[in-house]
Amino acid sequence: VPSTCDWRKAAGIISPIKNQENCKCCWAMAAAGNIEALWSINYWPVEISVQEMLDCARCGDGCEGGFVWDAYVTVLNQSGVASEKDYPFEGQAKLHRCLAKKYKTVAWIQDFIMLPSDEQEIASYLATHGPITVTINMKMLQHYQKGVLKAKPTMCDPQHVDHCVLLVGFGKSSIEEDIRVETVSSRSHRPTPYWIVKNSWGANWGEEGYFRLYRGANTCGITKYPLTARVNQQVEQQVSCP
Amino acid sequence: DALQTQDVHPQPLELIEVFKLFQIHFNRSYSNPAEYAHRLDIFAHNLAQAQQLQEEDLGTAEFGVTPFSDLTEEEFGQLYGNQKAAKMNPGMGIKAEPEKWRKP
User: Fold this and answer.
1) Cβ atoms within 10 Å, residue A22
2) What pLDDT sits at residue A207?
3) Which of A40, A118, A195, B84 has most Cβ atoms within 10 angstroms of its Cβ?
4) ipTM score here?
5) Mind telling me how many Å the CA of B45 is from chain A's nearest CA?
């Protein structure tokens, strides 16, 4: 596992920050971000339709919450997914109005997997394959502005996970950042390991739409449901995170 | 604005100014003075909450005014929380079977 990884540094891999607005579709936006990144790493850049995942999902109530695997199953059932440009996000699901057949498929997946609930393994997979989705407890994000969020389980229950996001990298805090926030001398400085997480609340929130979460203590339940699609054929192609 | 500030519970002027900046920055308007007063109360509570989190935080995170500062914790959970995921039984984790999906 490399010491740092940030897929945002590779051009065209991470799509722009999305905004779910009043639709509780974090699960579809996280899945879309995962497929977009994997497709871009392995083939070419695409931006796929979240609206298709909402309209064509089995239950058809995508704006009332869902699971990341529902999005993957929908993409598998539709044999792919249309582009965001053709089938744009409207902020509400249209029951029984799946328009997938109307548009050209721009990306598809082979299958999807759940990774082990181990942050080291998650980091290893992230660095060698690409961004992955996780589900976390979002309670502390209401007041978050910037920096590395580190919370005890009593403050952020790791069992109560209620928000899906995309892990796009990891790293360690710099001495400059730690000294700015607290009284740390350079001699006793221990860098804080963190995950870089892409959220779907617009670029006006957090660190330009992203946030950082402490890595190594299952903060806010990050290891509970680590899922990723797979876009490769038979042979697993390993890539290198910048 | 003058009408609005007269109708709210007594709040420090500084807080009202911060709330005004919040409204401008995040493009928020409220339908009537009662709603404004209600949201200002919530905003004040949330600033105190953010301060508390700042004191308890173990990392380098900074907490404060965000686009969600005029929502109660319950409203925030209802509007943005994925309740389906939250209600899932911890023992019911689903593991996909890749081989099954690969079959034509």
Assistant:
1) 10
2) 97
3) A195
4) 0.87
5) 11
